[in-house]
Amino acid sequence: MGIGFSIVLFVVAIGVLSFILGSIGSLITYFLVKKKKRRKILFAFIVPFLGLYTIYFCGIIGSIIVSEN
């Protein structure tokens, strides 16, 4: 179990967390928004994926840049 397994594990964990946060955000948006509901619900569902994966991959790239091998 090397670095690849760790990366896959974290990607799956972030995916599950993003799905949960996106579902909650979509439900809140569904009940609060009156106009252009479909587009805003989709946006509320996708934003956690974009945010969490961006932070994760920027962290990986940053750690590779500053590490001394």
How is this fold's topology laid out?
Elements: H1 3-32, H2 37-66
Helix pairs in contact: 1-2
Give the SSE string: HH
Secondary structure tally: strands: 0
The helix content is over 70%
Main pleated sheet? none
Gap between N and C termini: 20 Å
| Spatial extent as radius of gyration | 16 Å
Describe the model:
With 69 residues, the protein is mainly alpha-helical. It has one domain. Helix content is 87%, strand content 0%. It has 2 helices and no strands. Helix 1 packs antiparallel against helix 2 (37-66). The protein is elongated and about 55 Å long. The two termini are 20 Å apart. The model has no long low-confidence stretch (mean pLDDT 90).
In short:
The protein has two helices and no strands.
Characteristic key phrases:
single chain, 69 residues, mainly alpha
